[in-house]
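Fold this sequence, please.
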Amino acid sequence: MSSDPSRPATAGMHDPQRRQLLQAAGLGAGALLLGAAPWTAQATTARPLLATRSGRVRGVTEDGVHVFRGVRYGADTAPVRFQAPRAPQPWRGVLDATAYGASTPQRGNDGPGSEDCLFLNVWTPGLRDGRKRPVLFYIHGGGFDSGSGSDALYDGGRLCRRGDVVVITVNHRLNAFGYLYLGQFGDPAYAQSGNAGQLDLVLALQWVRDHAAEFGGDAGNVTVFGQSGGGAKIATLMAMPAAKGLFHRAWTMSGQQVTAAGPRAATQRARLFAETLGIDPAAPDAIARLRALPPEKLLEGTAARDFSRIENTRLYFGPVMDGDVLPRHPFFPDAPAQSAAIPMVIGNTRDETRAFLGGDPKNFALSWAELPGRLEAQQYVDIRADLVVAEYRRLYPHYTPSEVFFAATTAGRSWRGAVEELEARARQPSTAAPTWAYQLDWGSPLDDGKFRAFHTLDIPLVFDNIAQPGSRTGDGAQAQAVADAMSGALLAFARSGDPNHAGLPGWEPYALARRQTMLFDAPSSLADDPRGAERAFWRQAPFVQRGTL
C-alpha cells in the first residue's frame, strides 16, 4: 500500500499514506518524528515479570502501567510459510520484553520485516491481582498489506490509566505472507493459505484467553477494536468459526469487510503473483518454489499490477471465502449469525479520502470541467461521473468542485461498506446484540483545516493519545474534548457493551427506521440518517467490496 492512494491508509508510525499527507501539508516526516527513533515513555526502575505458557518475559513499568513489548505468541512462520501458525517453542530463563517485535515482511517504511513476526504488546495496570479488567485488543490498519502494532499512537498507557483496562496490540502476517491463496494449486496442506494472517489473529486471541489472569484481565470480556484494515479483519473474524468465543465486543473504525475475495479471483491473483516471480503456477513444484524464495523476493511479486480496475496499481491481498477458515462472506448476504450476540460499534470519518487523495494539490483546486474526469478515476462505484457531480451540486450548491470530489469519493468508497454492515446488523432478529454507528465530524485544525476529518484521524482520539508523535489532531482544548468523548465511549463499551457515558448525549443503537448516528464533534450530537440523501443516491449501484472479483 505504500504507493497506491486507493488503499486505506495504515495507522503505523511509518505509514507511507500518512507520510504523504504530511508532505502534502508542507511538513517533513522528521518534523513529527515519523522518521525519528522510536518513542519511549518515561520508565521507572521497576521490572515486572510476565509468566507465559512458553516462558517468562520481563517488561518495564511506565507511569504506573506495566508494559511488555515484543511478547511472542507464535513461532517463527518461515518454516510454515503460507500455512497456519504454530504456538511458540518453550524457552528457559527470562526474555527481555522492552522492545517491539518485528513486523511482517512488507514494502515501505515498516519493512523489511521478518517472517518471525508473531509478537504482541501488553499494557496493564496490574499483574496476577485477581482483577478482571476489560481487555482491549487492537488490530492495526494498513489494509491487509502493511503496518504493525508498534505505532506510538497505539500506546495503551493512557487508556489503562483512564479506564483500568488492559490494552494489547498485535503483529501478524500480511500481503502474500498472510493472504496468498494457494488452495487450488494442488496441495491440500495449503488449503488455508488465503487466511493465514487471520489465523495468526486467532492464535493471538487464544493467547489472550489463556493468559488473561496473568496480566489482570478478564478472558470473558475481550473487546476487539481496529481501524481501516484492522476493522476489516475484525469483520472477517466475526464470520470465522475458529474465532467464535474469543472476543465479546467489536468496535471498527473506517474498516469494513462486507465480502471476501472469491476463490476464483484469489486463485487468479495467486497465479499472477507466481508468474511475476518467474514460476509456472501449473507446475507441480510451484508451491515448493514459492516457499524456497527469500522474503524480499516474494515482496517483489506483490508489486504486480492487479487485474481489477479498483486495484489498478498493486496486487490485492485479503481474506478469501475458502469454504474452510472463512466459509461465508463476512457480511453478505446478511450479518453472521455466529456473532449476533456481540455488541458492535461501526464508525467512519466524515472526510475519509482527504487522507488518500489530499496529497495531490490539484485535488484542492479542481474546476467544474476537470471534476468529472478526476472523479471517474477515483470513485469505486460504477455510476456516470457527470451524474454524480449533478447530484452533489443539487444537494450541496455551496460546495466547490474540490469539495464535491472529496465528498463523493468518500461516500462511494469506505462509507458505503459501513452502511452495508450497519444495515445487515440492523436486520438481525430483535434478540441480537445492538449496534451503534458513529461519524467523526470534527476535523484537524492543522494545515488550515484543509484535511478535515480524514482517514486515521480517529486513532489518537480513541486512544486518548493526541500528544503522541504522529497525531494530527493538534493539542488544543477541542481536540482533547473529542478525545475524551471517543476514548470514554470505547472504555464504556469495553466495560458494559454500551458506549454511553456522561460526556456524551444519549447514543441510541442503530435501527433502519431512523439510522441513529453519533456525530463526534465539539460538541457531539446524535443525528438521524446523516447524509441520507447521499446514501440513497449511491444505492442505485450494487456494492462490491474491494478484492471480491
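The chain has a mean pLDDT of 91. The first strand starts at residue 49 and ends at 51.
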